[in-house]
Specification:
Chain lengths: 200, 643
């Protein structure tokens, strides 16, 4: 790959598996020969709060955090969380959204409204060049664990990046606890198959 | 081999690399993983102390006994340890002593932001500041050498963005075990060095000032500081994480990169000033370098451009630099033509992509999967049809709240129902203050709530006041104020939310856990017995999930004029991995009365005319089943759990 730099943002809710997915993503960049950095902030809540990870691949990376309008790929584990990050996407960048909705406390308390999917789509399309809707949570549930949805999204991302799966599977083998490797490989492959089917 | 480590992991690795056999600390975000990472290296000994001051005192003992040791904590922890820090600066260590402190600019998980570099000037000791993981390991090693060369403790300062970023560094392929000295060691008595009686301390102060001058001279040529020549129009002074942002924004400028944040050199700044037209300081939080440079008579800009408060980012540094005319704004270049929407949603799904609000040019052809749901209702981005254009800044927030299954929730729920005045403390349970629970009235420093409640009671605020504190915080800073209530004949009630672990920072063992950091069994301290020994005769223990019992006992304690302690005990479910099937909602019975929504649990979703439970987030604690007045939430537990 001859890309000078690739910036990613992964946005979701604590407990959805964003951190594992971003750990895999940054390792893949390193193995692909890039300088890499990854930053994440988990805030105060271990479950249920917003979680974002930023991953940067490049020839030489100084800052671990991305800049507004410069992000190449936005991965949304949850629809509202991905919408929050749209200003960071570069015009024409790619957005992969898991069609999954976790209403935040203000919505459940009735003081705010969760946007309609059509509104979220319109917002994302103010910048996205490619917008990919998937139901990764559904695929993950079929595999028996909803937390696998992040790795399903990575499978799609790999296809979108035009990368061979072997590098990714190698990293999954290395990073995931042994008893979960087979499941995570399966989740990645399901995502990649979905990508191969859709992103032609 | 090249490996990706977080800043914290790298700092822990650096201690091991330096041959440091001992690490002591108290957990605190963003510093916690430093000691955890260190504890995994072969042949080391690591301990969680009961608080940061104890940790630094233990470290001082290890150093006095001749061994290298490091001590770790978050920025506010250093305030707790400050008394001991000032003291060891005067007496000086024997074995190298490094205090690894992580600041939290932006307050991602802290009650304040403060700049630990200031402790360099205040307590008079060197501060090193790495900017990525490779430097984290390297500077840790350098800090030990500095400590032993100049006989001073050294602070290594990190920040959240360094501690929690993963960046590559070269690590050893094979790890050689360290041999911490476990044989009998002879202690050399040296009262003139280790007892700061006034006659000794007066001499020590002069020695400390001399050390700072010596290190400042050393800083002129030490490898921690370097000039990176570049464009002669602009000279940037930066250290740590701010250097990384500045490097992105000013790729061609001349840099003075400081690795030693205190004491500062003199000549290096004059050299830089001689090389460039103007000097600009990019430093997060306090203007320490800027003030120093100005005192040298060098005109420099800094805080007139970059903010004093909050966390920096490349984004922010660039925006301020553009405003100041230092760089040109970047105009993002669009890489695509008309947007394409790929709909991978299952057939028949009525998602946005299939809702077909408008059909715009350039909508993609989707996949075969999408065929049934209509392809790509393209919102168009240029004012597409009837769909409102959202402002990302006004989207509903997702503030943190107590985790699903957290046993603190039932206590705060009942306290709120009883209209108690709750003086809170630092830990997960600070989130008892968050809506919809809104239970907590104050929160301050570690252990402060127990002193504060006694103070309010003295003034006459005796209407159902209570201090609430977690187990780890109780052992950290709760013991002296609890004695104080008993001794001064107070009337306050103190609730210890005992989940048997230091949970918020990621589950570190403490005296309630029954195990040490190294995994050895250890005695479990009885909080009830401690309270009785202090003179409290009204002491009760609760199961937080027993709603009737919690109501009865809390009401009894709050209405009593006797000082009292309640221990609400339930292990943190994230620690024990206790998880049960999520309950479901019987739509016939649910009338969306809102009772379950008031317990503030993320998986309980308001669907307008009923609630729904997200089975991914739900922990299956069934507290919502307990509080539902219409029995509309139905347990799916098979273990005979709360019905």
């Amino acid at each position: 790959m001859a890309l000078e730099k690739v910036d990613f943002v992964l946005a979701g809710v604590g407990g959805q598996g964003t951190i594992l997915a971003s750990d895999i993503l940054v390792e893949v960049g390193l193995e692909a020969g890039y300088d890499v950095k990854k930053s994440e902030v988990h805030g105060m809540a271990q479950r249920g709060g917003g979680v974002e990870s930023q991953v940067r691949w490049g020839e030489k990376v100084y800052s671990a955090t991305v800049e507004k309008g410069e992000v190449d790929f936005l991965l949304g584990f949850e629809m509202l969380e991905v919408a929050r990050w749209i200003d960071f996407l570069k015009p024409g960048g790619d957005v992969i959204v898991n069609r999954y909705r976790i209403p935040p406390p203000p919505v459940n308390m009735g003081v705010a409204r969760y946007p309609d999917e059509s509104e979220i789509q319109r917002l994302l399309l103010t910048r996205a060049g490619r917008l990919v809707w998937v139901d990764a949570t559904d695929v993950a549930r079929e595999l028996g664990n909803a937390a696998l949805s992040g790795v399903v999204l990575l499978g799609l991302l790999a296809v979108d990046l035009g990368m061979e799966p072997d590098l990714w599977l190698g990293v999954i083998d290395r990073l995931v606890p042994e008893r979960f490797v087979a499941l995570n490989r399966e989740a990645f492959s399901r995502g990649a198959a979905l990508g191969a089917e859709m992103l032609v | 081999m090249k490996k990706l480590l977080s800043g914290n992991e790298a700092i822990g690795y650096g201690a091991y690399l330096a041959g440091c056999g001992y690490g002591v600390g108290y957990p605190g975000t963003p510093s916690t993983e430093i000691l955890q990472a260190y504890s995994t290296y072969p042949g080391v000994h690591a301990e969680w102390a009961t608080n940061e001051k104890v940790a630094l005192d233990v470290a001082t003992g290890i150093s006095y006994a001749g061994e290298r040791v490091f001590c770790t904590m978050k920025h506010v922890g250093l305030n707790v340890a400050a008394d001991s820090l000032f003291s060891i600066v005067f007496t000086g260590p024997r074995g190298g002593l490094v205090v690894a402190v992580a600041d939290d600019p932006g307050m991602h998980s802290s009650q304040n932001e403060q700049d630990t570099r200031q402790y360099g000037r205040f307590a008079k000791l060197p501060v090193v500041e790495p900017g990525d993981s490779a430097e984290g390991a390297e500077f840790m090693k350098a800090a030990f050498e500095l400590s032993e060369q100049f006989k001073t403790p050294v602070i290594l300062r990190s920040v959240t963005r360094l501690s929690h970023s993963r960046t590559p560094l070269e690590v050893m392929d094979e790890l050689v075990p360290l041999h911490a000295a476990h044989e009998t060691v002879k202690y050399d008595r040296d009262p003139s060095r280790q007892i700061p009686l006034p006659m000794n301390a007066r001499r020590m102060h002069r020695e400390v000032e001399q050390k700072m001058l010596d290190i400042s001279a050393w800083a002129e040529t030490c490898e921690l500081n370097r000039i990176e020549p570049g464009d002669s129009r602009l000279g940037i002074v930066a250290s740590g994480i701010a250097y990384q942002y500045a490097r992105e924004v000013f790729p061609d400028a001349t840099f003075l990169k400081l690795g030693l944040a205190y004491p500062l050199p003199t000549e290096l700044f004059h050299t830089l000033a001689g090389m460039v037209d103007q000097v600009v300081v990019v430093e997060e939080l306090d203007p320490i370098y800027e003030h120093h440079i100005r005192l040298l008579g060098i005109p420099a800009r800094g805080k007139d451009i970059f903010p004093l408060c909050g966390e920096f980012s490349t984004e922010l540094v660039r925006a301020r630099a553009v405003t100041a005319g230092l760089v040109e704004a970047r105009v993002p270049v669009s890489t695509g033509g008309a947007p394409i929407v790929f709909n991978g949603l299952p057939e028949g799904t009525t998602g946005a992509a299939g809702s077909g609000d408008t059909t715009a040019a350039g909508s993609g052809d989707g996949s075969s999967d999408a065929a049934g749901s209509g392809v790509a209702g393209n919102g168009n981005g240029n004012g597409g049809g009837d769909v409102a254009l959202l402002d990302p800044a006004t989207l509903p927030g997702r503030p943190p709240m107590l985790c699903p299954g957290c046993a603190h929730r039932p206590i705060f729920y009942v306290l709120q129902r009883l209209r108690a005045m709750v003086f809170g403390d630092i830990g997960c349970y600070t989130l008892g203050a968050a809506p919809p629970l809104n239970a907590t009235h104050t929160c301050g420093a570690m252990g402060a709530g127990i002193g504060v409640v006694h103070g309010t009671d003295l003034v006459g605020v005796k209407d159902r006041t209570v201090a609430v504190i977690g187990d780890s915080t109780f052992f950290h800073g709760g013991l002296p104020p609890l004695v104080n209530i008993a001794y001064n004949k107070g009337v306050s009630t103190v609730i210890v939310l005992d989940n048997r672990i230091t949970a918020m920072t990621g589950h570190q063992a403490n005296p309630a856990t029954g195990a040490t950091m190294m995994g050895d069994e250890s005695p479990t301290v009885s909080i009830e017995a401690v309270a009785r020994a202090f003179g409290f005769s009204k002491v009760d223990t609760l199961d937080p999930y027993d709603l009737d019992e919690v109501r009865r006992v809390l009401k009894d304690h709050l209405d009593s004029s006797e000082p009292s302690v309640v221990v609400a005990r339930y292990n943190c479910v994230l620690q024990t991995k206790e998880r049960n099937a999520a309950p479901h909602v019987d739509l016939e019975s649910c009338n969306n009365c809102g009772t379950c929504l008031n317990i503030g649990c993320a998986p309980i979703i308001n669907r307008g005319d009923h609630v729904e439970i997200d089975d991914i987030l739900c922990n299956g604690c069934n507290y919502c089943v307990t509080v539902c007045p219409r029995d509309a939430i139905v347990s799916n537990r098979t273990d005979g759990g709360e019905e």
